Amino acid sequence: MAVDGTTSGFLQFCSFGTVWDSNNIACVWPSSTIVNPCTNQTSGKMMKYYSHCSAYWYCSGGSATSKCCPPGEKFQEDLGCISDGTSQCEDEFCNDFSTTANLSMPCSLQSSDCPAGTTFDELGCTCQKNSGEYNIREAFFWCGLDVCHAGIDIPFTGNNIEDVSMNRFYVEYDKINVTGGTAIFQNNQSHISIPGTANMPMGTDLYISITFKVGDSVPILQAVLENKRCDGAEEPSTSITVLDSSITGYVDLDVKLLTEGSPGQNNVKFTVPKNIWLETSIRYDGQTVTVSVFKESNLLHQTSWQSTGPVLVRRSPIGFGSLCSDYANFTGSLRQFLLYRCDMV
């Protein structure tokens, strides 16, 4: 990440149970990558987990599963789980997802894991930390009858850009000025990304909403939102781009959503005004994609098309602005981004 003209490195850990795949540049499940700690290991083999002193990998048939020692114990090579007499692990949290929540949703019964270091609280209908700090950058979590919580909610308020949903996804950003509830893209290197959304399934119940304002000049295609790989190996499965229209003061807005059963149509184009706050939403229910554009709660445009199957998974994370050479970077402003992976009705 570049800060004040210098580049600094930040150590980040993958979510519990996943490993870093440098080829895909993403955290993935061991079974889906050659970076498998149990490759060529015998069944029953236990190996230390790199970021938790109370966790270990358990090998079975060449597959790796993350496991946790009981409370008060730590893992030691060749001995397994032993008593932690020094209490060195008291500030470490490990959850092998033995605690789950069965959630009754309007669309179907969902089962979602509580994040590492947390347990399910039936009264609060949420995952609560056991004690101290804990990692909540795991899977999406919803709860309650006829309630669909936001999977990602970035309001761009305060001094930092952060996800305020239950998931608290880590957000990377560079050269963004946040003021008065608005994220202003300062130059052609301004960029925001959500690394945890790389390889993230978006399923067949999806709602995305982003409120943005386009700047004065958009002579080259600009990406407001996308999960695109710059090497061209994969086109984005979801994207919102803008380009100067032939009509003065307007841009052509292109919105795309790709699913496994996408027919001939997978995108729509509208002509919208510049320098005005617009909310663009994408809703998919497993059968129909509906794209809507609002100006101050007034519907400007809406188009639907038929599509089936889950939204295509992409290796690249969801980002705002683009660092790819074939796109210019976004030169406008953002107000809010919302993403739901469940039926909101």
TrEMBL record:
Q: Which residues form the Chitin-binding type-2 domain?
A: 35-91
Q: Name one GO cellular component term.
A: extracellular region
What start and end residues bound the annotated signal peptide?
none
Q: Which GO terms describe its molecular function?
A: chitin binding
Q: Which domain of life is it from?
A: Eukaryota
Q: Which PROSITE patterns match?
A: CHIT_BIND_II
Name the record gives this protein: Chitin-binding type-2 domain-containing protein
Q: What are the leading ranks of the lineage?
A: Eukaryota, Metazoa, Spiralia, Lophotrochozoa, Mollusca
